[in-house]
Every structure is written in C-alpha cells, then in structure tokens.
Amino acid sequence: MNNSKYKALDVKNRCENKLHINFKSGKECNGWFIYNKRKVARITVPHGRKNIPQKTYLSMANQLKLSVDDFDRFLDCPLKEDEYIRILKKQISNL
Amino acid sequence: MKTVLGRNADWRSFQASAITIEHDAFTPVSGSAFAGVEVDTWAFIGSSETIFTSHSQREVYNLKKLEERIEKLETFCKHNVCNIQIHRLINFDLNTSLNIIIEPDGEGFIARSPDFPLYGYSNDFIESIEMLKREIESLYEDLIENDDYTEEWLKIKSFLKNILKTK
Questions:
Q1: Cβ contacts (< 8 Å) between A51 and chain B: which residues?
Q2: Distance of alpha carbon A37 from its chain centroid, rounded?
Q3: Which residues are within 8 A (CB) of B58 and not within 5 positions of it... i.e. 6 or more apart?
Q4: DSSP character for A24?
Q5: Domain boundaries, position B40
Q6: Which residue, of A91, B17, B86, B151, has the greatest Cβ tally within 10 A?
Q7: Within-domain flag for B3
C-alpha cells in the first residue's frame, strides 16, 4: 500500500487528469467518474496536505472500485483510463 | 466551558435539547435552556458502557457528565473499532437509524457506513461522524438530480429516499 507516498492532492490530481473527474469545491471534495453518460464511481478526497492514512487510502480505492494494488498503480501512473474501464466492466454488468 | 473534542465553538449549533443516556446515572437537568448536547449516537464501549441518544425521548442531561462520557468514547475509539448508530443527519432526520463504524486512522478517525461507499475523515472523533453525515447528504443531493447512474447507485438512491425525511 503506497499511502505514505501520496498526499490527498495527488489523488485529486490523478482523478482529474486520468479519469476526468470534476470535484466539487467546498466542505466535501468529491466527484464522479462518468462513463457512457452514466455516473459509475464516486470518490471523496480528504482535505489537508498530510499523507493519507491507511484506512482512508483503502476507502478511496474502494470508492473507485479498485483493489489496493490497482489503486497504487493508478497513482503511480501505469493504470490509465482504458484499463480502469476494463476493471469496472468486470465488476459491473451492462456498463 | 471546557473544550470537548475540539467542538467548543459548535456546541450550540448541536441544538442541545435531546439526550438520553441508557443504562447510566446521568441526572436530567431541568429548567435550563442549554444544559446538554445532542450527540446522535448509540455507541457500544466494551460490554458495559452505552451512550444512547434519541430525539423520540427528549430529555436534557448534565453537560459536564456528557462531556466526560464523550471523552471516554473518543479515548476508546483511539484504539478500537467503535460501532455507532446515528438517528439524523445535518439537515435530515432518518426514518431508521444507520450503523456507523469509527476506527482510528493515522492521527485521526475514519467513520464509515456499511450501507454506502462513503467515509468521513477528521482528526476529531465527532467531526469524522459529521463529515460522514455531510457525505451522505451530499450524495443524496447528487442522486436526486437525475437518473444517470448505474444500478448500484439507483438502489442507494431508492434506499436514501426511503430513510431520509426533512427536519
């Protein structure tokens, strides 16, 4: 688990740049991954500049429907949007 | 007033009117406009300690004793998984209580609900619950905009529609 490697802002930036997620501004920082005009996954990124605690990191991975390994790869960069969609399609019928 | 859980400034916004402590010897304070605080929780601490609050049984209890009890709860949660039931959100009441799991996470706490893929994180124990409540309300606001969601979210939308009621 690479939670000590990343800060919340890194997760937000990856989600914006790789999955085109638009985050709400304000008290809650959350946004939807949209595929084929349907909202599929919703992630919340905590405020703050510190490293991400383990359970929060795991919760964000779950929100994106990724395993911790895949979430690590998502943040490290090898996992791109097309692979992400393939992972989602394995989990969600009729996506 | 002593600061409790970093929430001193927010005590009054808690609308302190309804506290019921079950299985405990908290003394109701009568004739006071602000003598208690509503914590909305039903928490199990070990096998013997329980905090239960319910707006259906509106009573006001001694604030100092409640502060002590919440501090106990926070201390317990620093090292243990804590199960809590909430009876309302920020702007909504709940037709049925929701189970919340609070765990220590790094320097803070993470509050999660088994019913939704949501969490609330904060360095403050109570604040983590508040953050989760905000998350649930924020999700509901998103979901009622339209039906452009996968089946999973439409089910959650239906569930939330059934349990949320305007205060």
A1: 106
A2: 18
A3: B17, B18, B20
A4: P
A5: 8-166
A6: B86
A7: no
ipTM score assigned to the predicted complex: 0.91
What DSSP character marks residue A7?
Answer: B
Please tell me the pTM assigned to this model: 0.77
Residue of A29, A35, A51, A59 to mutate for B, most B C-beta atoms under 10 A: A59
Query: What does the domain layout of chain A look like in residue ranges?
Result: 3-91
**DSSP-assigned letters across all residues of B142-164:** HHTT-S-B-HHHHHHHHHHHHHE
The full length of chain A comes to 95
> How many distinct structural domains can be found in chain B?
1
Distance (Å) from the C-alpha of residue B136 to the closest C-alpha of chain A? 11
Give the pair of three-digit tokens for residue B50: 């329980």
The DSSP output letter for B111 is E
End-to-end CA distance of chain A: 28
Dist. CA B16–CA B86, nearest whole Å: 16
pLDDT in tens, A25-47: 776 789 999 999 999 999 999 88
CA neighbor of A88 nearest in space, from A63, A58, A54: A63
Q: CA-CA-CA-CA torsion for A64, A67, A73, A74, nearest 10 degrees?
A: 0
